[in-house]
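Entry:
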Amino acid sequence: AIPGPNMVIGALGVFILWLGWFGFNPGSTLGASGDNVKDIAHIFVTTNLSAAAGAIVTMFITWKRYGKPDLSLTLNGALGGLVAITAGCDVVSPGGAVIIGILSGFVLVFGIELIDKVLRIDDPVGAITVHGLNGAFGTIAVGLFAVEEGLIYGGGWSQLGIQTIGVLAVAA
């Protein structure tokens, strides 16, 4: 892979997006009034935890697989964590957000390898993996990690099925 011309500017761009996600997730989910303030704080926490976990796990995976951490992929790992948590930012626990972020790091690294090396699709910025695969994963993850309806919390298979059908409908 050819590194970007200026990784400092690239990192700054990712951190600007990360900061903007704190307005995007609560703003697209709730209005900032009354009792929603507590819920907005919860969304801030889940958003931040997923992004941080995505970045850290991506860094460690690339370090293990390629012999050194890859800054570009690590930054994409943060974005992947942000994308993955967006669908369920208000319904997952902080622990669930960390797990979603961790899994998004795996989706990112192995998804990029699949797209680039197996499918041989030219995706120089990893947009298919960051947004497409992590978006699909995050949507399905709601069916697993939603505190009341998720499969892991005893909500049964219904929500997971609904989320999966939604992803398949969008993919079709």
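The radius of gyration is 16 Å.
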